[in-house]
Amino acid sequence: MIGSLLPGGLATPATLVFADRLDRNLAGMAAFAAGAGMALRPHAKTHKCLQIARRQMALGARGLSVATVGEAEIMAGGTGRAGPEVDDIFIAYPLWPTADLLARLGELAGRVRVTVGTDSAAAAAQLAPLAGRVRVMVEVDCGLGRSGVRPADAAGVARAARQAGLEVSGVFTFPGHSYRPGAAGAAAADEAAALAEAAAALAAAGFENPERSGGSTPSARLARSGAVSELRPGVYALNDAQQVELGIARMDEVALVVAATVVSRPAPGRIVLDAGSKVLGPDRPTWASGHGRLADWPAARITGLWEHHAVVAVDGDPPELGGVVAVIPNHVCTAVNLVPELLVTDQGRVVDRWPVAARAANR
Amino acid sequence: MIGSLLPGGLATPATLVFADRLDRNLAGMAAFAAGAGMALRPHAKTHKCLQIARRQMALGARGLSVATVGEAEIMAGGTGRAGPEVDDIFIAYPLWPTADLLARLGELAGRVRVTVGTDSAAAAAQLAPLAGRVRVMVEVDCGLGRSGVRPADAAGVARAARQAGLEVSGVFTFPGHSYRPGAAGAAAADEAAALAEAAAALAAAGFENPERSGGSTPSARLARSGAVSELRPGVYALNDAQQVELGIARMDEVALVVAATVVSRPAPGRIVLDAGSKVLGPDRPTWASGHGRLADWPAARITGLWEHHAVVAVDGDPPELGGVVAVIPNHVCTAVNLVPELLVTDQGRVVDRWPVAARAANR
């Protein structure tokens, strides 16, 4: 029962991190990447915490991935303090380089090693003022249908970056179509094929030994060693109900829960919790069984979610009115972003509070 | 074109409020309630801003509705400053009264008039330490299937509150099943029937002239004057894509947008914006046409949403790479909660910045 690990007297809803589970998750992925001969560059958008970033670096991560310049600035703020520095950051996003972003990237590049994503010749050309200071990775689409050029078109973008005076490090992709039951294997195959094709196109255009960066949490352990040189998973650090329902993580590998109070038992088999979409996050993929899971009631389902109410269908012996239960959010990245700090718990006690330093760093 | 109203040189994504539209929305609902002979108690969970709360009070609102004690504490912090005071707050939620919450409610009741919701005799009994200091409203379920007792059971909860020494003001319900296309009329009828039945039960048990509080934005203007004495809509202040797609608000009544930059045009008919679920909110009801709407491209649809990417299907003349567009979130309450401040714009200029004072006040 995870309930026995919840600190007593908590004001709810409260977002908790189990430090021992976090450490096991971090060590497990680090060991996998090392064993597979791939560099690990964890995505910090999941946790947004310097404390977790430093743990990842201490376990041998090459650097961090982030989604925005703002996240990069905050993660770079971890340098120079006690513990390993975050000195190498990849903004794995096709930035549109406005004057404001160029100025901020220039400042950032004076502090840490910076690599930025791009998926168009137009954006690459606008990065020219940063020549010699930041590196570029070309984004390719391996089947998700989001951003990124077709693998065959990667060389054209790389040439535009080279013409603008920028060093091109390689190519990257996000196999996010791994987020469906049973889809991770095919997504990993797509990832390998797209990275291989794009890297070959770059090599043919004179770019030597291009980096091939991929990885999502569902597909990370299926990544092909020959085709993928760097992995960028994020969610694995904390896990969530999506990973449990995809079969990627066990319940006891979920390191973040929201402690919630049973505020209402309006009908038999139905309870209402004070954790709603403003703390769990409203994410609900079509294949999910509900809006999150209850750690100690695996058969229960969150059938309705409003801003401050989770309606739970639970048979048998439901939690009592006023009781506190542990809820696993569907998507941990959006849940973390909703709170100012994470309560770090160990053996049923709150032992630390970690600020969500990069919360809402959306630009 | 709303695009012409966007301030130039914005760092995106940026959450903007059009002050003139906000004021029109506030005045419209105030006039409706006054004309229908109902008290208006707007729900502050939508905007979480003292500046908007004061405008609502200045337009004749009886007080505010909130969802949590934390929201109440922050809204009460608006008293004593320039402008009308927020001196009457209803926590329209079935609180489970822990020792911590009782202490905070006691302190709050020393500053403003406080009413709390309850939907069980057990919770009502635990409110006893607040006898003489807070009032109670009994929650009934009018068909949403969330919290609240059946209307016939309201009197039992009211008696428990009376036995605990508390004043019972009346009954309340949330007709949230109005949030489906074409459902608002039936939800308003359910609301009227449930409030009438519950109020009659209270009257029969000796509670005189019970308040009957209802209201959601889709159903508010359909509320029955005889059955509903108080309205608690929230979203109407700002509106959102849900209200547009339900036919409740026109596009030009949407007072909050997220300015976003086109960062990628990876394929014909597809663009990618830098506004993702961490600024728009991930809410997507099954009946919605997508993950939000583009104000100036009514035929465009947001077909995919990730944390920092919105993928938009747009035919004809799509916005150009690097262009800035106005995105209407699906659910404004969760979008507001994602940012520290709202940029108030008028005539294409940012004229003020309003802190989201009650952001993440989930407990």
How would you concisely characterize the structure shown here?
Chain A has 363 residues and is an alpha/beta fold.
Keyword list:
homodimer, about 375 residues, alpha/beta, Lyase, Ornithine Decarboxylase, Chain A, domain 1, TIM Barrel, 2 domains, 9-stranded mixed beta sheet, 8-stranded parallel beta sheet, 10 helices, 17 strands, about 25% helix
Q: Classify the oligomer.
A: homodimer
Helix content of chain A: 25-40%
CATH domain fold name of the largest domain in chain A: TIM Barrel
CATH class of the largest domain in chain A: Alpha Beta
Number of DSSP E strands of chain A:
17
CATH-wise, what's the superfamily of the largest domain in chain A? Alanine racemase
Task: Name the chain pair with the biggest interface and residue counts per chain.
Answer: A-B, 61 and 60 residues
| CATH architecture name of the largest domain in chain A | Alpha-Beta Barrel
SSE order of chain A: EHEHEHEHEHEHEHEEHEEHEEEEHEE
**What's the tally of helices of chain A?**
10
What is the C-alpha radius of gyration of chain A, as a whole number of Å?
21 Å
Basic shape of chain A:
elongated
Strand content of chain A: 15-25%
What's the overall average pLDDT of chain A, rounded?
Answer: 96
Low-pLDDT parts of chain A are none
Number of domains of chain A: 2
